[in-house]
Specification:
The complex is a heterodimer of chains A (about 270) and B (about 300). Chain A is mainly α. Helix content of chain A is about 80%, strand content about 0%. Chain A is built from twelve helices and no strands. In chain A, helix 3 crosses helix 4, helix 5 packs antiparallel against helix 7 and helix 9 packs parallel to helix 11. The radius of gyration of chain A is 22 Å and the shape is elongated. The relative contact order of chain A is 0.14. With about 300 residues, chain B is of the alpha/beta class. Chain B is built from eleven helices and 14 strands. In chain B, strands 6-7-8-3-9-10 form a six-stranded mixed sheet, sandwiched between helices. In chain B, helix 3 packs across helix 4 and helix 8 packs across helix 11. Chain B is elongated, with a radius of gyration of 24 Å. Classes of the chains: A mainly alpha (about 270), B alpha/beta (about 300). At the A-B interface, helix 1, helix 6 and helix 12 of A face helix 2 and helix 3 of B.
Chain lengths: ~270, ~300
Protein backbone atom coordinates (compact mmCIF):
# COMPACT_ATOMS: atom_id res chain seq x y z
CA UNK A 1 0.00 0.00 0.00
CA UNK A 2 1.19 3.56 -0.83
CA UNK A 3 2.58 5.46 2.08
CA UNK A 4 2.72 9.14 1.21
CA UNK A 5 3.56 10.32 4.72
CA UNK A 6 5.46 8.15 7.19
CA UNK A 7 3.44 7.33 10.28
CA UNK A 8 5.11 8.10 13.58
CA UNK A 9 4.02 5.07 15.55
CA UNK A 10 5.23 6.44 18.88
CA UNK A 11 3.04 9.54 18.49
CA UNK A 12 0.19 7.40 17.22
CA UNK A 13 0.26 5.14 20.28
CA UNK A 14 0.63 8.14 22.60
CA UNK A 15 -2.41 9.78 21.01
CA UNK A 16 -4.40 6.56 21.40
CA UNK A 17 -3.38 6.31 25.06
CA UNK A 18 -4.53 9.86 25.72
CA UNK A 19 -7.78 9.33 23.84
CA UNK A 20 -8.48 6.42 26.17
CA UNK A 21 -7.42 8.31 29.29
CA UNK A 22 -9.62 11.34 28.69
CA UNK A 23 -12.65 9.06 28.44
CA UNK A 24 -12.12 7.82 31.99
CA UNK A 25 -13.54 10.42 34.32
CA UNK A 26 -12.10 8.85 37.48
CA UNK A 27 -8.66 8.73 35.92
CA UNK A 28 -8.85 12.33 34.76
CA UNK A 29 -9.91 13.44 38.24
CA UNK A 30 -7.02 11.50 39.76
CA UNK A 31 -4.71 13.34 37.39
CA UNK A 32 -6.10 16.83 37.96
CA UNK A 33 -6.97 16.92 41.66
CA UNK A 34 -3.53 16.26 43.18
CA UNK A 35 -1.79 19.02 41.16
CA UNK A 36 -4.53 21.46 42.14
CA UNK A 37 -4.45 20.50 45.80
CA UNK A 38 -0.65 20.42 45.94
CA UNK A 39 -0.60 24.00 44.58
CA UNK A 40 -3.52 25.55 46.43
CA UNK A 41 -3.16 24.03 49.90
CA UNK A 42 0.40 25.36 50.42
CA UNK A 43 -0.62 28.77 49.08
CA UNK A 44 -3.61 28.79 51.44
CA UNK A 45 -1.41 27.73 54.36
CA UNK A 46 1.15 30.44 53.62
CA UNK A 47 -1.63 33.00 53.27
CA UNK A 48 -2.93 31.96 56.69
CA UNK A 49 0.54 32.24 58.19
CA UNK A 50 0.98 35.69 56.68
CA UNK A 51 -2.42 36.80 57.96
CA UNK A 52 -2.58 35.23 61.39
CA UNK A 53 1.03 34.88 62.57
CA UNK A 54 0.98 38.45 63.87
CA UNK A 55 -1.80 37.53 66.29
CA UNK A 56 0.29 34.85 68.01
CA UNK A 57 2.53 35.34 71.02
CA UNK A 58 5.40 37.40 69.58
CA UNK A 59 7.92 36.14 72.12
CA UNK A 60 7.35 32.46 71.28
CA UNK A 61 7.65 33.14 67.55
CA UNK A 62 10.80 35.18 68.11
CA UNK A 63 12.37 32.31 70.07
CA UNK A 64 11.39 29.83 67.37
CA UNK A 65 12.74 32.15 64.67
CA UNK A 66 16.06 32.46 66.43
CA UNK A 67 16.37 28.69 66.76
CA UNK A 68 15.41 28.05 63.11
CA UNK A 69 17.76 30.68 61.71
CA UNK A 70 20.60 29.04 63.64
CA UNK A 71 19.69 25.69 62.03
CA UNK A 72 19.40 27.24 58.60
CA UNK A 73 21.60 30.38 58.25
CA UNK A 74 20.06 31.17 54.88
CA UNK A 75 16.98 32.26 56.77
CA UNK A 76 18.76 34.85 58.93
CA UNK A 77 17.70 38.52 58.85
CA UNK A 78 14.03 37.68 58.27
CA UNK A 79 11.21 38.87 60.46
CA UNK A 80 9.00 36.35 62.24
CA UNK A 81 6.26 36.21 59.57
CA UNK A 82 8.77 35.93 56.73
CA UNK A 83 10.60 33.23 58.62
CA UNK A 84 7.41 31.25 59.32
CA UNK A 85 6.33 31.46 55.67
CA UNK A 86 9.80 30.54 54.40
CA UNK A 87 10.18 27.54 56.72
CA UNK A 88 6.68 26.16 56.15
CA UNK A 89 6.84 27.01 52.44
CA UNK A 90 10.07 25.08 51.98
CA UNK A 91 8.57 21.99 53.61
CA UNK A 92 5.39 22.18 51.58
CA UNK A 93 7.35 22.80 48.39
CA UNK A 94 9.10 19.46 48.94
CA UNK A 95 5.77 17.67 48.79
CA UNK A 96 5.56 18.71 45.14
CA UNK A 97 7.99 15.97 44.33
CA UNK A 98 5.36 13.39 45.27
CA UNK A 99 3.51 14.27 42.09
CA UNK A 100 6.00 12.79 39.62
CA UNK A 101 5.50 9.53 41.51
CA UNK A 102 1.74 9.57 41.97
CA UNK A 103 0.62 10.82 38.55
CA UNK A 104 2.60 8.56 36.18
CA UNK A 105 1.85 5.45 38.21
CA UNK A 106 -1.85 6.06 37.63
CA UNK A 107 -1.47 6.42 33.85
CA UNK A 108 1.13 3.74 33.21
CA UNK A 109 -0.66 1.12 35.29
CA UNK A 110 -3.85 1.67 33.27
CA UNK A 111 -1.89 1.77 30.06
CA UNK A 112 -0.38 -1.70 30.42
CA UNK A 113 -3.02 -3.47 32.50
CA UNK A 114 -5.67 -1.94 30.22
CA UNK A 115 -4.10 -3.68 27.22
CA UNK A 116 -4.25 -6.95 29.12
CA UNK A 117 -7.85 -6.62 30.21
CA UNK A 118 -9.05 -5.56 26.76
CA UNK A 119 -6.95 -8.37 25.21
CA UNK A 120 -5.39 -5.98 22.72
CA UNK A 121 -1.81 -7.08 23.30
CA UNK A 122 -1.83 -9.75 20.61
CA UNK A 123 -3.30 -7.64 17.78
CA UNK A 124 -1.03 -4.80 18.85
CA UNK A 125 2.08 -6.98 18.73
CA UNK A 126 0.98 -8.50 15.43
CA UNK A 127 1.53 -5.11 13.78
CA UNK A 128 4.99 -4.11 12.55
CA UNK A 129 5.44 -1.77 15.53
CA UNK A 130 8.89 -2.22 17.06
CA UNK A 131 9.00 -3.27 20.69
CA UNK A 132 11.06 -0.23 21.64
CA UNK A 133 8.53 2.04 19.92
CA UNK A 134 5.77 0.51 22.00
CA UNK A 135 7.73 0.83 25.24
CA UNK A 136 8.78 4.39 24.43
CA UNK A 137 5.21 5.37 23.56
CA UNK A 138 3.89 3.84 26.77
CA UNK A 139 6.54 5.66 28.80
CA UNK A 140 6.04 9.01 27.08
CA UNK A 141 2.24 8.76 27.24
CA UNK A 142 2.55 8.65 31.02
CA UNK A 143 5.60 10.89 31.36
CA UNK A 144 4.47 13.92 29.34
CA UNK A 145 1.16 14.64 31.13
CA UNK A 146 2.68 13.85 34.54
CA UNK A 147 5.58 16.24 34.08
CA UNK A 148 3.43 18.93 32.45
CA UNK A 149 0.89 18.73 35.27
CA UNK A 150 3.66 18.82 37.88
CA UNK A 151 5.15 21.90 36.25
CA UNK A 152 1.76 23.57 35.84
CA UNK A 153 1.01 22.88 39.46
CA UNK A 154 4.41 24.31 40.43
CA UNK A 155 3.71 27.40 38.32
CA UNK A 156 0.35 27.81 40.05
CA UNK A 157 2.06 27.44 43.41
CA UNK A 158 4.75 29.98 42.46
CA UNK A 159 2.10 32.41 41.20
CA UNK A 160 0.07 32.03 44.40
CA UNK A 161 3.18 32.37 46.51
CA UNK A 162 4.09 35.62 44.76
CA UNK A 163 0.72 36.96 45.88
CA UNK A 164 0.78 35.79 49.50
CA UNK A 165 4.51 35.98 50.36
CA UNK A 166 5.27 38.52 53.05
CA UNK A 167 8.24 39.77 51.00
CA UNK A 168 10.20 38.93 47.82
CA UNK A 169 12.81 37.33 50.10
CA UNK A 170 10.27 34.71 51.19
CA UNK A 171 9.54 33.91 47.55
CA UNK A 172 13.21 33.43 46.68
CA UNK A 173 13.82 31.32 49.78
CA UNK A 174 11.09 28.87 48.67
CA UNK A 175 11.41 29.07 44.89
CA UNK A 176 15.18 28.80 45.00
CA UNK A 177 17.70 27.35 42.56
CA UNK A 178 17.75 23.97 44.33
CA UNK A 179 13.96 23.62 44.18
CA UNK A 180 13.88 24.63 40.51
CA UNK A 181 16.61 22.13 39.65
CA UNK A 182 14.71 19.39 41.43
CA UNK A 183 11.55 20.42 39.63
CA UNK A 184 13.08 20.49 36.16
CA UNK A 185 15.64 17.70 36.46
CA UNK A 186 14.66 15.34 39.26
CA UNK A 187 10.89 15.37 38.74
CA UNK A 188 11.00 13.97 35.17
CA UNK A 189 13.57 11.38 36.25
CA UNK A 190 11.44 10.35 39.22
CA UNK A 191 8.46 10.04 36.89
CA UNK A 192 10.50 7.93 34.48
CA UNK A 193 11.60 5.56 37.25
CA UNK A 194 8.00 5.25 38.44
CA UNK A 195 6.76 4.50 34.91
CA UNK A 196 9.47 1.92 34.20
CA UNK A 197 8.79 0.09 37.47
CA UNK A 198 5.02 0.31 37.10
CA UNK A 199 5.26 -1.25 33.64
CA UNK A 200 7.46 -4.01 35.06
CA UNK A 201 5.00 -4.67 37.89
CA UNK A 202 2.08 -4.55 35.43
CA UNK A 203 3.50 -7.65 33.78
CA UNK A 204 2.28 -9.64 36.75
CA UNK A 205 -0.78 -7.59 37.69
CA UNK A 206 -4.27 -7.82 36.29
CA UNK A 207 -5.58 -4.83 38.18
CA UNK A 208 -4.21 -1.30 37.77
CA UNK A 209 -4.39 -0.74 41.54
CA UNK A 210 -1.92 -3.55 42.15
CA UNK A 211 0.51 -2.02 39.66
CA UNK A 212 0.14 1.34 41.39
CA UNK A 213 1.48 -0.09 44.64
CA UNK A 214 4.98 0.57 43.32
CA UNK A 215 4.37 4.29 43.84
CA UNK A 216 3.99 3.65 47.58
CA UNK A 217 7.57 2.35 47.64
CA UNK A 218 8.91 5.28 45.62
CA UNK A 219 7.25 7.83 47.89
CA UNK A 220 9.50 6.78 50.79
CA UNK A 221 12.73 8.47 49.58
CA UNK A 222 10.76 11.67 48.94
CA UNK A 223 9.41 11.57 52.48
CA UNK A 224 13.01 11.25 53.68
CA UNK A 225 13.86 14.48 51.83
CA UNK A 226 10.82 16.09 53.43
CA UNK A 227 11.90 14.95 56.90
CA UNK A 228 15.46 16.03 56.19
CA UNK A 229 14.23 19.51 55.37
CA UNK A 230 12.05 19.71 58.50
CA UNK A 231 14.87 18.64 60.79
CA UNK A 232 17.36 20.90 59.02
CA UNK A 233 19.57 17.93 58.15
CA UNK A 234 19.05 18.50 54.43
CA UNK A 235 18.86 21.75 52.55
CA UNK A 236 17.84 21.56 48.88
CA UNK A 237 20.86 23.46 47.59
CA UNK A 238 21.73 23.40 43.87
CA UNK A 239 24.54 20.95 44.68
CA UNK A 240 22.17 18.56 46.49
CA UNK A 241 19.66 18.88 43.64
CA UNK A 242 22.29 18.14 40.99
CA UNK A 243 23.64 15.23 42.99
CA UNK A 244 20.09 13.92 43.35
CA UNK A 245 19.57 14.30 39.58
CA UNK A 246 22.71 12.26 38.83
CA UNK A 247 21.62 9.49 41.20
CA UNK A 248 18.09 9.50 39.77
CA UNK A 249 19.43 9.45 36.20
CA UNK A 250 21.42 6.33 37.04
CA UNK A 251 18.41 4.74 38.72
CA UNK A 252 16.20 5.68 35.75
CA UNK A 253 18.66 4.09 33.33
CA UNK A 254 18.71 0.96 35.49
CA UNK A 255 14.91 0.84 35.75
CA UNK A 256 14.51 1.31 31.99
CA UNK A 257 17.09 -1.37 31.25
CA UNK A 258 15.31 -3.76 33.62
CA UNK A 259 11.89 -3.01 32.11
CA UNK A 260 13.28 -3.17 28.56
CA UNK A 261 14.48 -6.70 29.29
CA UNK A 262 11.01 -7.69 30.48
CA UNK A 263 9.29 -5.89 27.64
CA UNK A 264 10.03 -8.45 24.93
CA UNK A 265 7.38 -9.34 22.37
CA UNK A 266 7.24 -13.01 23.17
CA UNK A 267 7.35 -12.47 26.93
CA UNK A 268 4.51 -9.98 26.70
CA UNK A 269 2.43 -12.34 24.62
CA UNK A 270 3.03 -15.61 26.41
CA UNK A 271 3.37 -14.42 29.99
CA UNK A 272 1.69 -11.04 30.28
CA UNK A 273 -1.63 -11.69 28.63
CA UNK B 1 6.61 -19.72 -4.38
CA UNK B 2 3.76 -20.63 -2.03
CA UNK B 3 2.07 -18.11 0.24
CA UNK B 4 2.98 -20.14 3.30
CA UNK B 5 5.65 -22.79 3.54
CA UNK B 6 6.86 -24.47 6.68
CA UNK B 7 9.46 -27.17 7.17
CA UNK B 8 9.71 -29.05 10.44
CA UNK B 9 8.24 -26.13 12.35
CA UNK B 10 8.44 -26.89 16.07
CA UNK B 11 7.65 -24.89 19.17
CA UNK B 12 8.30 -25.99 22.71
CA UNK B 13 7.29 -24.26 25.93
CA UNK B 14 9.68 -25.67 28.48
CA UNK B 15 9.18 -29.42 28.44
CA UNK B 16 5.88 -29.21 26.59
CA UNK B 17 5.86 -29.45 22.81
CA UNK B 18 3.02 -27.38 21.39
CA UNK B 19 3.82 -27.90 17.70
CA UNK B 20 6.10 -30.60 16.37
CA UNK B 21 7.66 -30.83 12.94
CA UNK B 22 4.92 -29.08 11.01
CA UNK B 23 5.52 -29.12 7.26
CA UNK B 24 3.01 -27.30 5.09
CA UNK B 25 2.74 -25.70 1.65
CA UNK B 26 -0.16 -23.40 0.99
CA UNK B 27 -0.38 -21.88 -2.50
CA UNK B 28 -1.28 -18.23 -3.01
CA UNK B 29 -4.98 -17.51 -3.16
CA UNK B 30 -5.99 -20.60 -1.20
CA UNK B 31 -8.51 -20.78 1.62
CA UNK B 32 -6.78 -23.22 3.93
CA UNK B 33 -8.76 -24.81 6.76
CA UNK B 34 -6.63 -25.70 9.74
CA UNK B 35 -8.65 -28.10 11.83
CA UNK B 36 -7.85 -29.82 15.07
CA UNK B 37 -9.02 -30.29 18.64
CA UNK B 38 -8.51 -27.68 21.36
CA UNK B 39 -4.93 -27.58 22.61
CA UNK B 40 -3.59 -29.13 19.41
CA UNK B 41 -1.31 -26.15 18.79
CA UNK B 42 -3.31 -24.26 16.17
CA UNK B 43 -2.96 -20.90 17.91
CA UNK B 44 0.75 -21.47 18.49
CA UNK B 45 1.16 -22.22 14.79
CA UNK B 46 -0.68 -19.06 13.80
CA UNK B 47 1.42 -17.04 16.26
CA UNK B 48 4.61 -18.41 14.75
CA UNK B 49 3.44 -17.73 11.20
CA UNK B 50 2.41 -14.19 12.15
CA UNK B 51 5.91 -13.63 13.61
CA UNK B 52 4.51 -13.16 17.10
CA UNK B 53 6.56 -15.94 18.65
CA UNK B 54 9.70 -17.65 17.41
CA UNK B 55 9.84 -21.34 16.52
CA UNK B 56 12.12 -23.54 18.59
CA UNK B 57 13.27 -25.20 15.38
CA UNK B 58 12.30 -25.48 11.75
CA UNK B 59 11.73 -22.77 9.18
CA UNK B 60 8.78 -20.97 7.64
CA UNK B 61 8.19 -18.35 5.00
CA UNK B 62 5.09 -16.25 4.73
CA UNK B 63 4.54 -14.35 1.49
CA UNK B 64 8.20 -14.97 0.70
CA UNK B 65 9.51 -13.57 4.00
CA UNK B 66 11.27 -15.86 6.41
CA UNK B 67 9.99 -15.81 9.96
CA UNK B 68 12.65 -15.06 12.55
CA UNK B 69 14.68 -13.20 9.92
CA UNK B 70 12.25 -10.75 8.30
CA UNK B 71 9.67 -10.51 11.05
CA UNK B 72 8.59 -6.96 10.28
CA UNK B 73 8.05 -7.82 6.63
CA UNK B 74 6.03 -10.87 7.71
CA UNK B 75 3.89 -8.71 10.01
CA UNK B 76 3.29 -6.21 7.22
CA UNK B 77 2.08 -8.92 4.87
CA UNK B 78 -0.33 -10.63 7.22
CA UNK B 79 -3.58 -9.67 8.85
CA UNK B 80 -4.71 -11.55 11.92
CA UNK B 81 -8.02 -12.11 13.63
CA UNK B 82 -7.16 -13.38 17.09
CA UNK B 83 -9.29 -15.67 19.26
CA UNK B 84 -10.79 -12.66 21.01
CA UNK B 85 -11.52 -9.47 19.06
CA UNK B 86 -9.16 -7.39 21.27
CA UNK B 87 -10.42 -3.89 20.56
CA UNK B 88 -10.15 -0.69 22.56
CA UNK B 89 -13.60 -0.40 24.10
CA UNK B 90 -13.29 3.29 24.85
CA UNK B 91 -12.53 4.13 21.24
CA UNK B 92 -15.04 4.13 18.40
CA UNK B 93 -15.01 1.54 15.61
CA UNK B 94 -13.46 4.13 13.29
CA UNK B 95 -10.81 5.18 15.84
CA UNK B 96 -9.85 1.55 16.43
CA UNK B 97 -9.41 0.90 12.72
CA UNK B 98 -7.51 4.11 12.00
CA UNK B 99 -5.20 3.44 14.95
CA UNK B 100 -4.31 -0.07 13.81
CA UNK B 101 -3.98 1.08 10.20
CA UNK B 102 -1.40 3.60 11.41
CA UNK B 103 0.57 0.84 13.10
CA UNK B 104 0.56 -0.94 9.74
CA UNK B 105 2.01 2.26 8.26
CA UNK B 106 -1.11 3.26 6.38
CA UNK B 107 -1.47 7.07 6.31
CA UNK B 108 -4.54 8.54 7.98
CA UNK B 109 -6.44 9.56 4.84
CA UNK B 110 -6.06 6.09 3.30
CA UNK B 111 -6.85 4.47 6.64
CA UNK B 112 -10.16 6.34 6.82
CA UNK B 113 -11.07 5.25 3.29
CA UNK B 114 -10.16 1.66 4.07
CA UNK B 115 -12.12 1.77 7.33
CA UNK B 116 -15.13 3.09 5.44
CA UNK B 117 -14.86 0.32 2.86
CA UNK B 118 -14.65 -2.47 5.42
CA UNK B 119 -17.19 -1.05 7.85
CA UNK B 120 -19.66 -0.79 4.96
CA UNK B 121 -18.91 -4.36 3.89
CA UNK B 122 -19.44 -5.47 7.47
CA UNK B 123 -22.68 -3.48 7.71
CA UNK B 124 -21.30 -1.34 10.52
CA UNK B 125 -20.85 1.99 8.78
CA UNK B 126 -23.77 3.56 10.65
CA UNK B 127 -22.11 2.64 13.95
CA UNK B 128 -18.66 3.94 13.04
CA UNK B 129 -18.65 6.67 15.67
CA UNK B 130 -19.98 4.49 18.49
CA UNK B 131 -17.66 3.21 21.15
CA UNK B 132 -16.80 -0.44 20.66
CA UNK B 133 -17.57 -1.18 24.33
CA UNK B 134 -21.26 -0.88 23.46
CA UNK B 135 -21.06 -3.34 20.57
CA UNK B 136 -22.41 -6.89 20.60
CA UNK B 137 -19.96 -9.78 20.30
CA UNK B 138 -20.79 -10.18 16.63
CA UNK B 139 -20.22 -6.50 15.92
CA UNK B 140 -16.88 -6.57 17.71
CA UNK B 141 -15.89 -9.62 15.72
CA UNK B 142 -16.74 -7.81 12.48
CA UNK B 143 -14.66 -4.79 13.50
CA UNK B 144 -11.79 -7.14 14.35
CA UNK B 145 -12.06 -8.74 10.91
CA UNK B 146 -12.03 -5.28 9.32
CA UNK B 147 -8.92 -4.51 11.38
CA UNK B 148 -7.19 -7.65 10.08
CA UNK B 149 -7.71 -6.37 6.53
CA UNK B 150 -7.24 -2.63 6.96
CA UNK B 151 -3.74 -2.72 5.45
CA UNK B 152 -4.76 -5.03 2.60
CA UNK B 153 -2.55 -7.98 3.54
CA UNK B 154 -2.08 -10.76 0.99
CA UNK B 155 -2.20 -13.37 3.77
CA UNK B 156 -4.94 -13.39 6.40
CA UNK B 157 -5.14 -15.55 9.52
CA UNK B 158 -8.68 -15.96 10.82
CA UNK B 159 -9.06 -17.75 14.13
CA UNK B 160 -12.65 -18.93 14.58
CA UNK B 161 -14.10 -16.00 12.64
CA UNK B 162 -17.74 -16.98 13.15
CA UNK B 163 -17.53 -18.34 16.71
CA UNK B 164 -20.35 -17.00 18.82
CA UNK B 165 -22.00 -15.11 15.97
CA UNK B 166 -25.70 -15.31 15.21
CA UNK B 167 -26.53 -17.05 11.90
CA UNK B 168 -27.01 -13.78 10.02
CA UNK B 169 -23.70 -12.32 11.19
CA UNK B 170 -21.96 -15.64 10.49
CA UNK B 171 -23.34 -15.56 6.97
CA UNK B 172 -22.03 -12.01 6.45
CA UNK B 173 -18.58 -13.12 7.58
CA UNK B 174 -18.60 -16.22 5.39
CA UNK B 175 -19.66 -14.16 2.36
CA UNK B 176 -16.88 -11.76 3.18
CA UNK B 177 -14.32 -14.60 3.28
CA UNK B 178 -15.53 -15.71 -0.13
CA UNK B 179 -15.01 -12.18 -1.39
CA UNK B 180 -11.45 -12.18 -0.04
CA UNK B 181 -10.89 -15.48 -1.81
CA UNK B 182 -12.08 -13.99 -5.09
CA UNK B 183 -9.64 -11.11 -4.54
CA UNK B 184 -6.89 -13.72 -4.51
CA UNK B 185 -5.84 -13.52 -0.89
CA UNK B 186 -4.51 -16.49 0.99
CA UNK B 187 -6.69 -17.25 4.00
CA UNK B 188 -5.55 -19.43 6.84
CA UNK B 189 -8.77 -20.37 8.58
CA UNK B 190 -8.72 -21.99 12.01
CA UNK B 191 -12.13 -23.32 12.89
CA UNK B 192 -14.11 -25.96 14.72
CA UNK B 193 -17.05 -25.34 12.43
CA UNK B 194 -16.56 -28.15 9.96
CA UNK B 195 -19.55 -27.26 7.83
CA UNK B 196 -18.06 -23.83 7.40
CA UNK B 197 -14.64 -25.27 6.57
CA UNK B 198 -16.26 -27.57 4.01
CA UNK B 199 -18.10 -24.66 2.47
CA UNK B 200 -15.15 -22.28 2.32
CA UNK B 201 -11.88 -24.15 2.12
CA UNK B 202 -9.92 -25.24 -0.93
CA UNK B 203 -7.54 -27.24 1.22
CA UNK B 204 -7.85 -28.60 4.70
CA UNK B 205 -5.56 -30.26 7.20
CA UNK B 206 -6.38 -31.95 10.47
CA UNK B 207 -3.67 -30.80 12.77
CA UNK B 208 -3.49 -33.35 15.53
CA UNK B 209 -2.63 -36.20 13.23
CA UNK B 210 1.10 -36.86 13.14
CA UNK B 211 1.26 -37.51 9.42
CA UNK B 212 -0.82 -34.53 8.54
CA UNK B 213 -2.69 -34.83 5.27
CA UNK B 214 -3.31 -31.64 3.35
CA UNK B 215 -5.83 -31.99 0.57
CA UNK B 216 -9.14 -30.79 -0.75
CA UNK B 217 -12.16 -31.88 1.28
CA UNK B 218 -13.38 -33.89 -1.74
CA UNK B 219 -10.09 -35.78 -2.12
CA UNK B 220 -9.95 -36.52 1.58
CA UNK B 221 -13.49 -37.89 1.44
CA UNK B 222 -12.57 -40.04 -1.53
CA UNK B 223 -9.39 -41.26 0.12
CA UNK B 224 -11.06 -42.11 3.40
CA UNK B 225 -14.47 -43.34 2.34
CA UNK B 226 -14.28 -43.89 -1.38
CA UNK B 227 -17.20 -42.98 -3.66
CA UNK B 228 -20.48 -44.66 -4.03
CA UNK B 229 -24.23 -44.68 -4.19
CA UNK B 230 -27.01 -45.29 -1.70
CA UNK B 231 -30.12 -47.13 -2.87
CA UNK B 232 -33.36 -47.41 -0.90
CA UNK B 233 -35.92 -50.10 -1.60
CA UNK B 234 -39.51 -50.68 -0.59
CA UNK B 235 -38.36 -54.10 0.68
CA UNK B 236 -35.42 -55.31 2.79
CA UNK B 237 -32.19 -54.16 1.06
CA UNK B 238 -30.16 -57.17 2.30
CA UNK B 239 -31.61 -59.40 -0.43
CA UNK B 240 -30.09 -57.18 -3.15
CA UNK B 241 -26.53 -57.23 -1.83
CA UNK B 242 -25.51 -60.22 -3.94
CA UNK B 243 -26.96 -58.67 -7.11
CA UNK B 244 -24.90 -55.52 -6.54
CA UNK B 245 -21.73 -57.40 -5.63
CA UNK B 246 -21.97 -59.43 -8.83
CA UNK B 247 -21.39 -56.31 -10.92
CA UNK B 248 -17.70 -56.00 -11.98
CA UNK B 249 -17.34 -52.29 -11.09
CA UNK B 250 -18.75 -52.64 -7.55
CA UNK B 251 -16.05 -52.84 -4.87
CA UNK B 252 -18.36 -53.43 -1.96
CA UNK B 253 -22.02 -53.46 -1.06
CA UNK B 254 -23.61 -53.53 2.37
CA UNK B 255 -27.11 -53.12 3.74
CA UNK B 256 -27.88 -51.11 6.83
CA UNK B 257 -30.61 -48.79 8.08
CA UNK B 258 -32.89 -49.79 5.19
CA UNK B 259 -30.33 -48.70 2.62
CA UNK B 260 -27.94 -50.49 0.31
CA UNK B 261 -24.54 -48.76 0.26
CA UNK B 262 -22.53 -49.53 -2.85
CA UNK B 263 -18.90 -48.49 -3.32
CA UNK B 264 -17.63 -47.86 -6.83
CA UNK B 265 -15.14 -45.60 -8.57
CA UNK B 266 -17.30 -43.54 -10.90
CA UNK B 267 -20.93 -43.33 -9.80
CA UNK B 268 -21.82 -40.83 -12.53
CA UNK B 269 -21.08 -43.39 -15.23
CA UNK B 270 -21.81 -46.59 -13.31
CA UNK B 271 -25.14 -45.68 -11.65
CA UNK B 272 -27.26 -46.39 -14.79
CA UNK B 273 -25.70 -49.87 -15.06
CA UNK B 274 -26.28 -50.48 -11.36
CA UNK B 275 -29.92 -49.39 -11.48
CA UNK B 276 -30.51 -51.43 -14.62
CA UNK B 277 -29.09 -54.58 -13.01
CA UNK B 278 -31.16 -54.12 -9.88
CA UNK B 279 -34.40 -53.45 -11.78
CA UNK B 280 -33.77 -56.48 -13.99
CA UNK B 281 -33.35 -58.55 -10.82
CA UNK B 282 -36.76 -57.27 -9.69
CA UNK B 283 -35.61 -54.83 -7.02
CA UNK B 284 -38.32 -52.28 -6.01
CA UNK B 285 -36.15 -49.12 -5.95
CA UNK B 286 -37.51 -46.14 -4.05
CA UNK B 287 -34.55 -43.68 -4.18
CA UNK B 288 -31.01 -43.49 -5.57
CA UNK B 289 -28.66 -40.88 -4.10
CA UNK B 290 -24.94 -40.23 -3.93
CA UNK B 291 -23.08 -41.50 -0.90
CA UNK B 292 -21.97 -38.38 1.05
CA UNK B 293 -19.76 -37.89 4.02
CA UNK B 294 -19.58 -34.73 6.00
CA UNK B 295 -16.30 -33.08 6.81
CA UNK B 296 -17.02 -34.08 10.36
CA UNK B 297 -16.86 -37.73 9.25
CA UNK B 298 -13.52 -37.00 7.56
CA UNK B 299 -12.20 -35.23 10.63
CA UNK B 300 -13.24 -37.97 13.04
CA UNK B 301 -11.91 -40.67 10.72
CA UNK B 302 -8.52 -38.96 10.49
CA UNK B 303 -8.32 -38.55 14.25
CA UNK B 304 -9.36 -42.18 14.79
CA UNK B 305 -6.87 -43.37 12.16
CA UNK B 306 -4.09 -41.43 13.88
CA UNK B 307 -5.00 -42.79 17.30
CA UNK B 308 -5.06 -46.34 15.93
CA UNK B 309 -1.61 -45.89 14.36
CA UNK B 310 0.11 -43.96 17.11
CA UNK B 311 -1.82 -44.92 20.18
Amino acid sequence: MDNPRPVNKVLLIMRKEWMEIIQQRALVLTMILPPLLFALIPVGALFAIGTFAGMADTKDIKDLADTLSKLNPALANMNEIELAQAIIGQQLATLFFLMPVILPSVISSYSVVGEKTSQTLEPLLATPVKTWELLLAKCLAALVPSVVLTWLSAALFAGGLALVAASPAVFTKIINAGWLLVLFLCAPLLALITIALTIAVSARANDPRTAQQISAVLILPIMLVFLGQITGLLVLSPFVALLGAVVLALLAALALWFTGRLFQRETILTRWS
Amino acid sequence: MNAIETTGLTRKFGERTAVEGLTLSIPHGTVFGFLGPNGAGKTTTVRMLAALIAPTSGTATVNGHQIGVENEAVRRSVGILTETPGLYGKLTAMQNLVFFAGLYEVDEATAKKQAERYLKLMELWERRDDKVAGFSKGMRQKVAIARALIHEPPVVFLDEPTAGLDPEAARTVRDFIRELHVEGRTIFLTTHNLTEADELCDLIAVFRTRQMRVDTPANLRRALFGTGTLVQFTTDPAQWVTVAKALPFVHDASAHDGTLAIRMDDPDKQNPLLVQALVEAGAPIRYVEPMTHSLEDVYLELIAEDEAKNG
